[in-house]
Specification:
Blueprint: H1 2-11, H2 13-17, E1 39-49, E2 52-58, E3 63-70, E4 73-80, E5 86-87, E6 97-103, E7 110-117, E8 129-137, E9 140-146, E10 155-156, E11 166-170, E12 174-182, E13 185-188, E14 192-193, E15 201-202, E16 207-208, E17 214-221, E18 224-231, E19 243-244, E20 255-256, E21 262-267, E22 271-278
Length: about 280
């Protein structure tokens, strides 16, 4: 599928994905139904022509944050949902640290980021990373506190809403669910294998909906990658086996809206897209 995305840039997106930049499907009302995997239309919507990735949304503030190319370097960017994102400044430790995996919680008043020592990116899984929570203050993001106990460069997802937020940290074959037991304190659960989610490896962040009952992520069984959907009845239950989402391309870092209406993702290296929920998988 990644090869198809590259070809799409040359051959024309509509000829491969039946993309439509402006048309929204009919009058179908998006919804999440417990016990049912949502269906998504084959037609994908290109909503933002900007070279961004790791796109997450706050339904409270109606804003989005992503990592975007700013000239020849990556920069953090923020803006209204589905609108152009503007570069923002985040205070970091002394270079050569760089930020990645920005995760905007549902309330939009704080931000989780991995800060990676870029001089150690080739040092293997024990690269030096700091996981930090920033908070909004006076219209800017300021450093609040670091989350201890996470070793090396891990894959982090978007947390659920506070209080008692849940948050997933994974390293391909192993997954850990954290709970914010008290403000500024994250407690790690017992690590479990990715196979408990029905995949061999988790290949990116496990992004939760605001209520923590649903998530999407990119997973692989052998060499076959898909975007997976998983749900649970209670936030304190463990997730079971996930299900691949039909008509959602094999992409990195998908994001699910709270009403299951859209799955956002980056594609072509130039754009943000979403797949829209429909009543039938054949749509």
């Amino acid at each position: 599928m990644r090869a198809a995305l590259i070809v799409c840039a040359v051959a024309g997106c509509n000829s491969i994905y039946d993309l439509d930049k402006t048309t929204i499907e009919g009058t179908f009302e998006a919804h999440c139904t417990p016990g049912e995997v949502p269906h998504y239309a084959k037609r994908l919507h290109q909503v933002l022509i900007q070279a961004c990735t790791e796109y997450t949304i706050s339904p409270t503030t109606q804003t989005a944050i992503a990592v975007c190319f700013d000239g020849f370097e990556l920069a953090l960017a923020e803006g209204p949902i589905d609108k152009p994102l503007l570069k923002i400044q985040i205070p970091l430790p002394n270079p050569p640290y760089a930020y990645q995996q920005p995760r905007l919680p549902p309330e939009g008043d704080r931000l989780l980021i991995e800060q990676q020592n870029t001089s150690l990116v080739n040092a293997g899984p024990i690269a030096d990373s700091i996981y930090t929570v920033f908070k909004r203050s006076g219209g800017a993001w300021v450093r609040d506190y670091d989350i201890p106990g996470i070793v090396g460069s891990q894959q982090i997802g978007r947390p659920s809403a506070s209080p008692r937020a849940h948050w997933f940290v994974s390293s391909f074959s192993t997954v850990v669910e954290y709970i914010e037991t008290t403000p500024r304190t994250w407690t790690a659960g017992t690590p479990f294998p990715a196979k408990d989610l029905g995949v061999d490896t988790v290949q990116g962040g496990i992004n939760l909906t605001s209520d923590g009952l649903r998530a999407v992520f990119t997973g692989a069984i052998g060499m076959t990658r898909s975007v997976y959907y998983v749900e649970r009845n209670s936030i304190d239950e463990k997730f079971g086996r996930a299900t691949p989402l039909e008509n959602v391309p094999e992409v990195d870092d998908p994001f699910l809206t709270d009403d299951c209406g859209r799955v956002y993702f980056s594609g072509l290296g130039t754009s943000i897209f979403f797949a829209e929920q429909t009543s039938s998988p054949a749509s």
